[in-house]
Each structure stands twice: as C-alpha cells, then as structure tokens.
Amino acid sequence: MVQVKLLPDAATETALRETLKLCNQAACHASRRAFTTGVKGKTALQRLVYGELKAMGLSAQPAIHCIRKAAGAYATLAENLKTGNYGPPGSRRRAAVQGAPVRFRKDAAQPFDDRSLSWQFDARTVSIWTVHGRLRSVPFTCSAEQAKMLAAHRRGESDLVWRGGCFYLYATCEVPQAPEYVPDGFCGVDLGIVNIATTSDGTVHSGRHINQVRHRNRRLRARLQGKGTKSAKRLLRHLSGREARFAADTNHRISKSIVTEAQRTTHGIALEDLGGIRARVRLRKPQRVTLHT
After folding, report:
1. Do 56 and 93 fall within a single domain?
2. In a domain, 6, yes or no
3. Which residue, 152, 168, 151, 148, is CA-closest to 160?
4. Residue 198: in which H helix or E strand, if any?
5. How far is CA 140 from CA 11, 17, 70, 123, in A?
6. Nearest to 238 by CA among 224, 252, 253
7. Do 122 and 208 belong to one domain?
8. Rg of the chain on CA atoms, in Å
9. CA–CA separation, 157 and 149 (whole Å)
10. Considering its fold, how many domains does the chain have in total?
11. Region 104-130: what's the mean pLDDT?
C-alpha cells in the first residue's frame, strides 16, 4: 500500500468532498436495505439496490463499490459476532450492534478502480470520477521511492481518504514475494508497559517517555472536556490523533530496530501471543486505560 497526498484546488476539493458524501449516503442506503431484507450477499444485494443507487446520481462502478462496501461491512460484522468481539449472546453491546444497520461516516474512505481512477505517474497527476464529472490532472505529491513503487507495482483499487483536512489516495501495490528467509536461531521479544519491548539478547526499549506523553495528554483532555468552551473544543480537535501518531512512530522505530538487528544476526523473531488479553486480565479501573492503550 502506497499513500500519496492529493493537491486539489478549491473547486476540485469541493467536488471530492461531495463525491465522498454521496458515496457514503449510497452505502448507508444499501446497508439499510440489506438490514431490512436480510439480503447481505454481494451479488444478491447488487441485484436489489443497484438501480436505486444509480438513481441517487452514482455511475456504474461507484455504485457497485458502494454495494460491495456495505456487503463487506456485514461480512466483517458477522465474523466479529462469531468470535465474540461484541460480547456474549444477550449482552447489551451485542444486542445494540445486531439491532441496527451498519452505518458509514459521510467522509469514510471510498474505493476506486481503474475505470473511475487513472494515474499519470510522469506528470504526478490523477484523473478521477466525481459527482461533477471526470476531474483530470489533479496533482499529487509523494517521495521518489513511492513514485517508483507506484509505477512498478500498482495494481487494482485505490482508496480516496479524507484525513486531517487533506485528501489522500491509498494505492494497492503487488510487490513480488521476497525469497524465503531461513533463520539461524530466534530472538525472543517480550512486550510490556514499563518496557515496550525487551529482547532475549538483553536490549531494552523503555516505555517511560511514551507513558509520560500518554499521561500528560490524558490530564489535558480531562481539563479541556471539563471546561467545554468553544476554544477548549477547538484545541481538543487539534490534539485529536496526535497521541496515536506519536505512539505509532515510536512503535515503528522500535520494531525497525529489532528487525534490523535480527537481519544482521540472521535470526527470526518470536513474539508472545497477546490475543484476548483484555478478556484474560482483570485490572483496577485506573490501570485499564494503560493496558488498553
């Protein structure tokens, strides 16, 4: 997956936002029809609502993708219910999920295939379908490595994403499979809270700094939410996602360091299985946030 940032002008940005809004309204309509009729399979749902989505203003391919998005959401929901991710049968949360149709945000990501989105790699532009017709020569920016990856390996669909006030395209790339790696021994990695990762060769990656950031952000959010003023809400929106990005960057640096050392020593990596830890471990309320983050 390669992420590139679109650089639309004001008119193009408006068209893209209206396109996302209409596509997600169509996906919500398909979801409601699937919920009321019980028809949740991709092919059967397409026969049921394709004409209705076309009447809403979508062309053929976007309408099909909206139907597939709704059908895929119900398939994911069924799998989550089967594995107990929404609680046991009879629980309030499970009943709430099962008692309402799946909904999509008005700015949720929308997939585009090669019929409704084309790339011009040399010019660094794309041509994309919108509710206002085909928009051509929409510029995008990316690194030289990303551009090389796109030109060589891009295949299939790309997702239009609205995030942080900007539009992005997430392009699927089919990279050739790397040669099989046969490790000469293994490096064990223990995951924790005080120390994010401790390897069997004695390397310790401390979690002190990231925990300090999380505690500071938690106190700040509590103060701002308690105030409830317009400026406090504005600052909360500004801070939204900052902690997650910081944590993701920290985790990426640590994992890259561990993988680099494993490659240097021709070792494999053995991780403990933390699946289902929330159900297995019971903690006092003040400790739950720390565990779950």
Report:
1. yes
2. no
3. 168
4. strand 195-199
5. 16, 16, 29, 9
6. 224
7. no
8. 23
9. 15
10. 3
11. 94
